[in-house]
Amino acid sequence: QAHNFPGVNFPARLYWPSRPDGFNMHQMVDNNFGKFRIFTFAGAKDQSYENAGYKMVPYGYAEEFTRGMDENNLSPWQCNESMWAETVEQHMPRSPPYANLSIGK
Fold first, then answer.
1. 63 to 27, 53, 86, 95: CA distances (angstroms)
2. Which of 11, 18, 38, 56 gives 23 a disulfide partner, CB atoms 3.0 to 4.6 angstroms apart?
């Protein structure tokens, strides 16, 4: 498998949680989370990822593995609503300029 997916770290040869030489989804996600976004199109054979704090969030026809925010370890930007409101325009995509078209003559 690894030769077909460069950069992906497989914890064992097989994704077969019940076999001693297999790995579970928790191990797979732990080994690769943060390197790139992780999606599944067929779900997981086991729910081991849930015990590690991962969740699968719908993303079109797929599901993406995410990890919830640690509420005790938020940045001031995340905690301060007015700070967020003041900077939100910087993070929004720019819209094209609109021409001022007058309707009357």
1. 18, 15, 32, 30
2. 11
